[in-house]
Design a protein that fits this description.
Elements: E1 2-6, H1 11-22, E2 29-33, H2 43-46, E3 54-56, E4 62-63, H3 66-77, H4 86-114, H5 122-141, H6 152-167, H7 177-189, H8 191-195
The structure holds glutathione.
Residues 10-12, 36, 50-53, 65-67, 99, 106 line the site of glutathione (GSH).
């Protein structure tokens, strides 16, 4: 059995869980919760960065980060998750943009979580927020299309928007109607999206 260290709110963990569900790999994975702030959690031995998601293979090898884990799942699926040819690079770029939005959103959440209010840096928060805003604006202007099954770029985007819903009360929605429609369509066509909402 593969072991996935993750937590219910992690957008990167959700990317892995949604991909595994969508591609029929979930029965090979046991999800074991992780506390990234707890020094006694074995996560820091499994991944020196102490980050989730981290995947532990049957032979004890650990894989991180989410992109490497997705690559591994793609290998297990016979190459269904990351398409071949020119589409590959568009999917990987979309994943990079969606992950970058998550990284910038997470840094804002961590600023609130790790720093006392008087020590928070408004310039830093605005710098990170600019990345989220520009990323969303680019996607709103040209939402990705997908036919049939979703690939890794679309899965990553759904996770990023889901994370903004979770942590920023969906404030992106009012000014991004095309992305709202995109996510509604994605959720209707990919049940794994709802099935991984704040789970595991
Ligand atoms: N690039 C990494 C990002 C992973 C990441 O930032 N995970 C967060 C939780 S969503 C984390 O582990 N944070 C704890 C920390 O940074 O110490 C990936 O794609 O897996």
């Amino acid at each position: 059995m593969l072991v996935l260290r993750s937590s219910p709110a992690s957008p990167f963990g959700r990317k892995v869980k949604m991909t595994a569900l969508q591609y029929g790999l979930m029965d090979r994975i046991e999800i074991v919760g992780a506390d990234t702030t707890d020094p006694s959690d074995p996560l820091r031995q499994q991944n020196p960065l102490g980050k989730i998601p981290t995947l532990i293979l049957e032979d004890g090898t650990t894989l991180f980060d989410s992109r490497v884990i997705i690559d591994y799942l793609d290998h297990l699926s016979g190459g269904k998750i990351v398409p071949a040819g020119a589409a590959r690079f568009l999917q990987l770029r979309l994943q990079a943009l969606a992950d970058g939005i998550c990284d910038a959103a997470l840094l804002q959440v961590y600023e609130g979580r790790f720093r006392p209010e008087e020590g928070r840096n408004a310039n830093w928060l605005a710098h990170q927020d600019g990345k989220v805003a520009r990323g969303l604006a680019a996607l709103e202007a040209a939402p990705p299309t997908f036919e049939g099954r979703p690939h890794i770029g679309e899965i990553a985007l759904a996770c990023a928007l889901g994370y903004l819903d979770l942590r920023f009360a969906g404030s992106w929605r009012a000014s991004h109607p095309n992305l709202v429609a995109w996510l509604d369509d994605f959720a209707a066509r990919v049940p794994a999206f709802e099935e991984t909402r704040f789970k595991g």
